[in-house]
Amino acid sequence: MAKALNASYRRYHPKWHRERVPIFWWVRSASYIKFMCRELTSLFVAYAAGLLLVQVWALGQGAAAHARLLNWLSHPAVVTGHVVLLATLLFHTVTWLNLTPQALVLRLGRWRVPKAVVWVGHYAVWLVLSLVIVWLFVGVA
Amino acid sequence: MARRSREPVLWAMFSGGGMIAALLLPATVTVLWIAVPLGWVEAPSYEGLRSLFLHPIGRLTLFAVATLSFFHWAHRFRYTMYDGLQLYHLSQLIAILTYSIAIALTVVAGFVLVTTG
To answer: Is ipTM strictly over 0.90?
Structure first.
């Protein structure tokens, strides 16, 4: 009985229907745009880390080299760029810290630390560390 | 036995970088590259900034910030390229490219922070 009765018979094999997604699919909705902006903050994070290394390098090259860097840093266009940089970094910080209650489940014994406490705790750490950084930099004036 | 995936390590570095950048970078950028150039606060002296950055703890902190930030970028940017630009067919190439850049930048960070005296 295994023999096919009709030699031209082929098993029905559907192709999955896949709609082509345009490259700019994410501009359609505000939440997708927000998602994309959040992902692209990583570029600015890397830039800030790189510029910190440049500053260390300039400090190592001597006072004159560091003064040249400070001169570049105070160019209006550069300051404007760094204000944009700060805005993206703040967006990164806020979106990142707002996800901590989902990402981090803290337990003390059998008690689960409430999400609100995890959230507030992270913002408190951010505040304290920011104050320490300001104090360190202003303190070495 | 299944080969152990590198994904958890990469994710941990992404996550660590996201956290350290979130907590430390906004204040650093505000003071060093906005408030000081605009004269809102007194500029740190060359010697003061030097001793702060080149103190062993300063170097270690800077190395952690730099390396984790670069891997944070690599991981996040890799997935942005996949999902955002629909480049699934280039997934391997993108992963090699982004992590290679992160590794190269980490080497540069190590070099700068070790050799700057």
So the answer is: yes
